[in-house]
Amino acid sequence: MSRSGRIEIKVPDSTQVNIADGFISAKGKLGEMKYKLDQFTKVELSDNSIKVSPKDNTKKSKQMWGTVRSRIFNIIHGVTEGFNKNLVLNGVGYKAILKGKILELNLGYSHPINFNIPEDIKISVSKPTEINIFGVDKQKVGQIASNIRAFRKPEPYKGKGIKYSDEIIRRKEGKKK
Q1: The pLDDT of residue 41
Q2: Treating both helix axes as pointing N-terminal to C-terminal, what angle do 138-149 and 59-80 enclose, rounded to 10 degrees?
Q3: Which of 64, 80, 96 is the last residue of a domain?
C-alpha cells in the first residue's frame, strides 16, 4: 500500500482548487493547471486540504493512489511557487547565449546549437556557463533540462559537458603508461 498517498495536501490561501467532471484544476499566482483524475482513486476537497484515497481494494487502485496524490501536489506547488532546474556548462569555450526565444549553445561542435524555448518555460542565463530553467509544470521543466543536457552529456574523464548543478560526475582515471 502507498505511504505517500496517506498525506493530505495543504492548499495555500492564494490558490483556488476546483474538482469537476473528472478534472482537478488549480489556479495560483503563476498560472493555471489542470489534471485528469484517475478512475481508480477518490479525491476529496475540504476546507484547505485535499485527501486522496483508493476507490476500492484492487491492485491498480493501490498503485495509482500515491501517483495521483503526487501529481496533484505538483500541480498545486507549480501554480504557487513553480519549479526550477539549474544546468552548468563545463569545458573550454562552452557557453550559452539567450537571444529572445532561442537559447544558443556553443558546445565544442563546429556549429552553434539553437534551442527553441517553449512559451510556458522561462530560461535565464546568469553567467555564460549557467542556465536556469523555470516553469509551472514539473514534468516539462525536467524534460527541457534533459533535452538541453542531451546535446553534450558530461563525460567521465575530464568532466566536460552539460550537467545539473547538483549532479556529481564520477571521474575515471585515464590510461597509464
Answers
A1: 86
A2: 80
A3: 80
